[in-house]
């Protein structure tokens, strides 16, 4: 029985030794795979961390850009408001100027009409005054001639008839009438 026990122990030992080697090999492979996986995970974690840092930098840049754009938008909104109010003021001013222009054009037309009427009246008065001056000159010349004439007594009681001029109405005047005008 000793030999059987010894053989059984030897067989058991060899079997256990084979199992230990088998499991040690298997454990080595698992450890190697786990180490590889750990190494890959560490590399991946580093890459993800770097990617995260890059994305955070981009987010910060975008936030800064967003703030700049919001400031510009605010400034542009203020400018648009000012320009809108200036435009409405300009429109109102333009409307007022148009109304004033129309009013002044109406006044100008009235003034031109009044000037033309006044000119016609003045021209008519000037014509009448010229006619009166002509008549007065004629009277004075006639008076001077009568004064120097030897027939002055005969002429003093007479009347003068003037012939029609082109486009003029006949006038009858006497020395007595002319003396009243003076």
Structural class: mainly alpha
Distance between the termini: 192 Å
Let me know the number of strands.
2
Sheet having the most strands? 2 strands, antiparallel
Please state roughly what percent of the residues sit in beta strands, choosing from under 5%, 5-15%, 15-25%, 25-35%, 35-45% or over 45%.
under 5%
- Indicate the mean pLDDT: 86
Tell me the helix content: over 70%
* SSE order, one letter for each helix or strand: HHEEH
Give the radius of gyration. 66 Å
The shape is rod-shaped
Q: Unreliable segments (pLDDT under 50, ≥5 consecutive)?
A: 168-182
- Total helical elements: 3
User: How would you name the oligomeric state of the polypeptide chains in this document?
Assistant: single chain
Instruction: Give the neighbour order of strands across the main sheet.
Output: 1-2
Care to describe what's here?
The chain is mainly alpha-helical. Helices cover 87% and strands 3% of the residues. The chain contains three helices and two strands; from the N terminus they run H-H-E-E-H. It has a two-stranded antiparallel sheet. The protein is rod-shaped, with a radius of gyration of 66 Å. The model is unreliable at 168-182 (pLDDT under 50).
Short description:
By secondary structure, the protein is mainly α.
């Amino acid at each position: 029985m000793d030999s059987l026990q010894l053989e059984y122990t030897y067989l058991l030992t060899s079997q256990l030794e084979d199992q230990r080697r088998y499991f040690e090999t298997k454990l080595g492979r698992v450890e190697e795979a786990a180490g590889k996986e750990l190494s890959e995970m560490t590399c991946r974690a580093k890459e993800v961390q770097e990617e995260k840092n890059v994305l955070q930098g981009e987010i910060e840049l975008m936030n800064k850009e967003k703030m700049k754009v919001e400031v510009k938008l605010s400034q542009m909104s203020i400018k648009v408001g000012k320009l809108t109010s200036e435009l409405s003021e300009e429109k109102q001013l333009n409307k007022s100027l148009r109304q004033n222009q129309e009013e002044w054009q109406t006044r100008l037309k009235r003034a031109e009409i009044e000037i033309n009427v006044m000119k016609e009246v003045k021209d008519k008065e000037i014509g009448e005054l010229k006619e009166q001056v002509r008549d007065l000159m004629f009277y004075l010349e006639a008076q001077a001639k009568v004064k120097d004439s030897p027939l002055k007594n005969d002429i003093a009681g007479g009347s003068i008839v003037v012939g029609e001029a082109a486009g003029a109405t006949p006038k009858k005047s006497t020395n007595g009438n002319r003396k009243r005008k003076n």
